[in-house]
C-alpha cells in the first residue's frame, strides 16, 4: 500500500510545483528603480498605446515622476494607469503624449504643460483622469511604414538628387575662385546698400506716402470699380476703338498728301500778309481818325452849340430874352 502512495505523493508535489511556477509573472518580481509605492494613481486615456511596455516611465519637465502600472482596453480608449510620486502635483490641464527618446528606445509617457491654456489649473486628485482630448498617441507602425514607402517610391529622393545637381550647376564657373569672386561681389553690393540706406529709407517713405495718397483716393477707386465706373471704362474703350480705326485712315491721307504742301505754304504766306496788314491798319487808324475828327468832323470833337446872337425877322436881338429863345427852340411852351 505504501509502495504506490509515495509515487503518487511525489507526482502531486511535482504538479503543484509546476503550476505554481506557471503563475509567476516577471512583472511581479521586484525591479530596480523607484516604484512610487507611497504615491497615488492617475488614469491617462490614449487612442492607442501600442508598444507601451510595462512599468514605462512617466516624465514631467524632463524628470521621471512616475511609472505605468496598468494598461486596460475600454470601449473607446486605452486607460493607462500611472503611479505618481507623492510629492508630484499634476495640473488638470496637463497634456500627455507617448514618446521615444531614440529610434530604438522604449516608449514612455511625457507630461507637458498646455501651451494654449497658460492659466493656473487645479491639481489632479488621486484617481483623476487625463481625458482623451488632452493626449497624443504615437502613429501606427503601419502608417509610418506606408509613409516611408510612399516617400521612397514617389521619387522624392530622385527629386532631391536633381535639386542638388541643379544647385551645383548654377554655381559660377571657376571653382572656388569663381565662388570667391561671387561672394566678394555680393559683399560689395551689400556694402553699397548699407552705405545708401538713406536712399532706401527715402524709397520706403515715398512708398508709404504713395500708399497714404492711394488710401485717401479710395472713394475714387471705389467709383471706378462701381457699375457706373465700369460702364464709363467700357464706353471709353468703344471710343478708343473708333479712334484707332480712324487714325490709320488719317495716316494714309498724310502719307499721300504731299500735294497739299504748296497750298499750305501759300496759306501760311497769306496769313502772314494779313497779319502784317492788320498791324499796319492798327498803326494808321489813329492818324485817319485824327484827320476826320480834326478836319472834316470837327463837331464830333466839340459837339456843343454856343449861341452868341439871335436876330429876329424885324432885326431885333433876341438873345437877351431867354424865355423867347427857349420858346423858339421848342424847349419851352
Largest sheet data: 8 strands, mixed
> Which H/E pattern describes the elements?
HEEEEEEEEHHHHHHHHH
- Whole-number radius of gyration? 58 Å
Mean pLDDT: 78
Strand order of the largest sheet: 7-1-4-3-2-6-5-8
Residue windows where pLDDT falls under 50 for at least 5 positions? none
What are the defining features of this structure?
alpha/beta; 8 strands; 14% strand
What does this entry look like structurally?
The protein is of the alpha/beta class. The protein has a domain at 33-137. Helices cover 52% and strands 14% of the residues. The chain is built from ten helices and eight strands. The chain has an eight-stranded mixed sheet, with no helix packed on it. The longest helix is centred in the last third of the chain and has 37 residues, at 260-296. The chain is elongated, with a radius of gyration of 58 Å. The termini are far apart. 8% of the residues are buried.
